[in-house]
Amino acid sequence: MYNLILEKTAYTPDQLSGTDLPQIALAGRSNVGKSSLINTLGGRKKLAKISSTPGKTRSVNFFRVKPGNFFLVDLPGYGYARCSKKEREKWGQLIQRFLEDNTLLKAVVLLLDSRLEPQAMDLELSQYVKSIDIDLIPVLTKADKCKQKQLSNISNTWINILGL
């Protein structure tokens, strides 16, 4: 069990600085399970907000992880969310700034819904992360809602796409 402490929340690019520890980011579509993963790792149900409505995370949230002394960083989800196009563009700029201007970022954990075929936005993010030379760690979520054959097929598809 890890101790996760929400230490910082950033809504704008200028709020991203000021952390001095290594970081691992969690990225993925809205409603893919990023908040559920944070809550599971931290052993508390209300550490990160969970909602059936996509787009609940609207900021970059820095969780200090102990032991280990690093940050697990929850990024806003992309894809479907009930918000304006302007708001989605703002999130995109925030995420891009976080990824590009961050020497402390060691890896991006890309959460992928195992019930879905590869989505364009997931493919774009995975290619983008690789292009800026950051380690990418793909994780299939919602596996409990799939049959074993479907899970095997989607896993093999992502292995081929990502060249693993």
Task: Break the fold down into its secondary structure elements and pairings.
Blueprint: E1 3-10, E2 23-28, H1 34-42, E3 60-66, E4 70-74, H2 85-100, E5 105-113, H3 120-131, E6 135-141, H4 148-162
Parallel strand pairs: 2-4, 2-5, 5-6
Antiparallel strand pairs: 1-3, 3-4
Considering the chains and any ligands shown, give keywords for the structure.
164 residues, globular, alpha/beta, six-stranded mixed β-sheet, Rossmann fold, 4 helices
Structure description:
The protein has 164 residues and is an alpha/beta fold. Strands 1-3-4-2-5-6 form a 6-stranded mixed sheet, sandwiched between helices. It has one domain: P-loop containing nucleotide triphosphate hydrolases (Rossmann fold), CATH 3.40.50.
CATH superfamily: P-loop containing nucleotide triphosphate hydrolases
Instruction: Give the overall shape, derived from the CA principal axes.
Output: globular
- For the CA atoms, what is the radius of gyration? 15 Å
pLDDT < 50 runs, ≥5 residues: none
Percent strand equals 25-35%
Order of helices and strands: EEHEEHEHEH
Q: Would you state the CATH class?
A: Alpha Beta
What integer is the average pLDDT? 87
Oligomer: single chain
**SSE class:** alpha/beta
Largest sheet: 6 strands, mixed
Outline of the structure:
The longest helix has 16 residues, at 85-100. With 164 residues, the protein is α/β, with parallel strands linked by helices. It is built from 4 helices and 6 strands.
